[in-house]
Design goal:
With 281 residues, this protein is mainly beta. The protein has 4 domains: 55 residues, OB fold (Dihydrolipoamide Acetyltransferase, E2P); 60 residues, Beta Barrel (OB fold (Dihydrolipoamide Acetyltransferase, E2P)); 57 residues, Nucleic acid-binding proteins (OB fold (Dihydrolipoamide Acetyltransferase, E2P)), CATH 2.40.50.140; 66 residues, Winged helix-like DNA-binding domain superfamily/Winged helix DNA-binding domain (Arc Repressor Mutant, subunit A). It is 14% helix and 38% strand. It contains 3 helices and 18 strands. Strand 4 and strand 5 form a beta hairpin. The radius of gyration is 26 Å and the shape is elongated.
Amino acid sequence: MEIGNYNELRYIKKTDSGLILTDGEKEVILPYNHAPAEANIGDNLHVFVYVHADGRLFATTQTPLACVGDYAFLQVVDENENGAFLSLGIDKDVFVHQRDQKRPMKMGGKYVVYIFLDDNDRISGSSKVAEFVEVEDIDLEVADEVNLLIFDQSDLGFSAIVNQKYAGLLYHNEVFEELQPGDVKRGFVKKITEGNKIDLSLQVIGFKHILDLKESIMLDLKESGGILALGDKSSPDEIYTRLKISKKAFKKTIGSLYKERLVEISDFEVKLVKPPLDDEN
């Protein structure tokens, strides 16, 4: 039986407290208020299992915001002298001891935490998430698309959990939007450096990126009468506001279009050499 996770358990009997479920060895209580009304003895039920405050194993059909082994963005709903309780979205909260808090947690605040079981199999969390990421076996390649959970900000940039397994960095000078801990983003692996450090990007990496951008800019030019009011000396903010790409990506793309003699480039303007022709039969 996996505590802090989903299990398929067999319904074997009723008690005053609720339904009794088993995996063949251990038994858990599924309170009536979370039990399917149509459940019959002998049925297998899909439930989340946790240790109740009284030490007994309980189950619920509620959907938790995270399971053991996950990283999640959770809110503090209670606290005591030892730590903080974060809502898991079910009747069971996650306890984060003071020693597991990277920074003191405040009532009502939201924090990215790693979910684990303590020595008593109780669901616990830690905001020292970098201590739990995989650092040896990095099963990623440059240009891979990845899922990102932003968990911290430093002078260098934004730290993110990558695919719920690794940690990586988005550099400030390559981010053109507001980010904060808890944000979930699509990202791409830019580089895996010595020591298995992962550099990330919010833009597609590699030749495919340029092809996609070329098509996008050509379409933009066609729709705007053949002129795009951006050029070599346009600011990064202007470029990102209009095209949602970095200035570096913009210059590389229009440079490629210029080499193909499709556009003319000036300081603050890109112009089609001639309007794109429709396909002819």
